[in-house]
């Protein structure tokens, strides 16, 4: 398998993800490279891709990588903390590259952070990125009143976007 040094066009995020995989003793396969590149390109374009969409793009870039391998790779990369997934309304799940929370912290998969939360319009399906601190008041109120810890990075909140609201 080629190393990231053989792929000078890899972003720093892909190179960092590969480094984290290797540090965790994980193999870096052609499928993993392809998935990381597709997800990184989507993140940079502010796209939110499902497993099916990732599989289609990987097939274009690496025809030898079977779709079932892409699905297993997504699961594995989430388990190792290199990717995060967010559940949307219905059954869709989207994927993002994660960033280590801090080099000084224990590098467990759950210690990786996602830089934003998501909201989804239940009319048109559009997914919007929002700063997680937007939910700070709700998070604090849930903690104080229900002793409930809100995880804004794991599922999108549903609502209606400005384009779909009746005027």
Q: Tell me about the biggest sheet?
A: 3 strands, mixed
Which second-level CATH architecture of the largest domain applies? Answer: Orthogonal Bundle
Trace the largest sheet across and list its strands.
Answer: 6-5-7
List SSEs in N-to-C order. Answer: HHHHEEEEEEHE
Overall body shape: globular
Descriptive overview:
This protein is α+β, with helices and mostly antiparallel strands and about 170 residues long. The protein folds into 2 domains: about 100 residues, Arc Repressor Mutant, subunit A (Orthogonal Bundle), CATH 1.10.10.10; about 50 residues, 2-Layer Sandwich (Dna Ligase, domain 1). About 35% of the residues lie in helices and about 15% in strands. It is built from 5 helices and 7 strands; from the N terminus they run ααααββββββαβ. The strands form 3 sheets. Strands 6-5-7 form a 3-stranded mixed beta sheet, with no helix packed on it. β5 and β6 form a beta hairpin. α1 runs antiparallel to α2 and α2 packs across α3. The longest helix is centred in the N-terminal third of the chain and has 15 residues. It is globular, with a radius of gyration of 17 Å. The protein starts with 11 loop residues before the first helix and ends in an 8-residue tail after the last strand. The N terminus is likely disordered. Keywords: DNA-binding, Repressor, Transcription, Transcription regulation, Zinc. InterPro entries: FUR (IPR002481), Fur_C (IPR043135), WH-like_DNA-bd_sf (IPR036388), WH_DNA-bd_sf (IPR036390). It comes from Terrabacter lapilli.
